[in-house]
Design goal:
Blueprint lengths: L1 H83 L4
Length: 88
C-alpha cells in the first residue's frame, strides 16, 4: 500500500516538472522569435532611413538636371528668336 501512495504522490510532481519544462521550451522559442522580429524591424527602419537619404539626393540631382536642361532650352530659344528678327 505504501508503494501505491508514494507513486501517486509523485505523479503531480512529475507532471508539474513536465509542464515547467514544456513552458520553458515554449518561452524560449517565443522569446527568440520576438528578438528576431525586433532585429528585423530595426534593420527595416535603417533601410527606410537610407532610402529617404537616397531619394533626397536623387531629387537634388533631378532638379539640377532639369535646371540645366531649361537653361539649354532657353539658350536654344534665344538663338532661334534672333534668327527670326528681320534685318533692316
Amino acid at each position: 500500500m505504501n508503494e501505491l501512495n508514494g507513486g501517486a504522490s509523485l505523479m503531480p510532481l512529475i507532471s508539474g516538472i513536465a509542464f515547467a519544462v514544456v513552458g520553458l521550451i515554449a518561452w524560449f522559442f517565443v522569446n527568440r522569435a520576438s528578438v528576431r522580429a525586433s532585429e528585423q524591424i530595426r534593420l527595416l527602419e535603417a533601410l527606410l532611413e537610407e532610402q529617404k537619404k537616397q531619394n533626397a539626393i536623387l531629387h537634388q540631382l533631378t532638379q539640377q538636371v532639369v535646371g540645366s536642361e531649361k537653361n539649354m532650352a532657353d539658350d536654344a530659344q534665344d538663338q532661334d528668336f534672333t534668327r527670326l528678327i528681320p534685318e533692316r
